[in-house]
């Protein structure tokens, strides 16, 4: 009987979480447990389990014998898989999108430089395989193939750094990176010519152990994709801040 209850609590958590992201609760307070139990036709135990999960994500603070409070946005755990999924469905705001760009600029160019220094033959094979998948997606006009190749490429790049701490950080922010990929992706795989070309140049820089050029190319890949989605993005501003 425990599994169905957990499934119900998970479903309730997903629904309430999405409503929080959408700003459904205007007074920054959730309804009381009894009201939520009635709304979802669930036991108070299921409601409490759902609220505990939301609390672990930083979305709410549970108050004994009081209604749960919705926490300020800067207390939310934006590396949480569910939270990022809800944000993706609700639509990424321009400000949050800029912060995703900053995250990528802080992380991926330096990882590219490390990969150029430490990539093995096996790492290069993984990177090339991912690039070929991107190219195949472009040629077959398949965004699904292109997107998978893009994700595989960046995952292989992190592995090529051969740094367990960096790889763990990469795993932690993986969903944030995927969210960024999805929101900077071309509308058609036929429009990915430049992206395929740039990733090939990056692969070649890593293969030739050119750390400086690998770092530079990754910055260009990120900012080119970002300005496609957000044309008014001040590239120089972000580069100036992150390069000093």
Automatic annotation (TrEMBL):
Source organism superkingdom: Bacteria
InterPro entries: GntR_C, TF_FadR/GntR_C, Tscrpt_reg_HTH_GntR, WH-like_DNA-bd_sf, WH_DNA-bd_sf
Alphabetized SUPFAM superfamilies for the sequence: GntR ligand-binding domain-like (SSF48008), Winged helix' DNA-binding domain (SSF46785)
SMART domains: FCD, HTH_GNTR
Keywords, comma-separated and alphabetical: DNA-binding, Transcription, Transcription regulation
HTH gntR-type domain span: 6-73
Keyword DNA-binding in annotation: yes
GO molecular function: DNA binding; DNA-binding transcription factor activity
Protein name: FadR family transcriptional regulator
